[in-house]
Amino acid sequence: MMLRPRLQPFRSAKWLAAVHTIENCVRCGAHGIQAAHRNQGKGTSMKASDCLVAALCPACHHAIDNGKHLTLAERREEMDTAILATIEELAINGRIGAQ
Prior knowledge:
Layout: H1 13-19, E1 34-37, E2 53-56, H2 58-66, H3 72-92
Antiparallel strand pairs: 1-2
């Protein structure tokens, strides 16, 4: 099996702006969000692709990135779930779509 070559991270101010239109955290419902990038699969000083972000409140962002109450596997699962919820929220509200 051949591995595909590592691609440059996707960068899009438009995508991040769409994420910032989500007012409530997709994890807990708190008002006020940050666009939290996925931590897995990035290099030193390099954020993951902009399309792999979750609309999280500061508390949930911290809990997933640095929280001591979740294992690494649990933090990754929580982030993946939040990213999917963010994409779903954007699609349902017409902020992204197939063209």
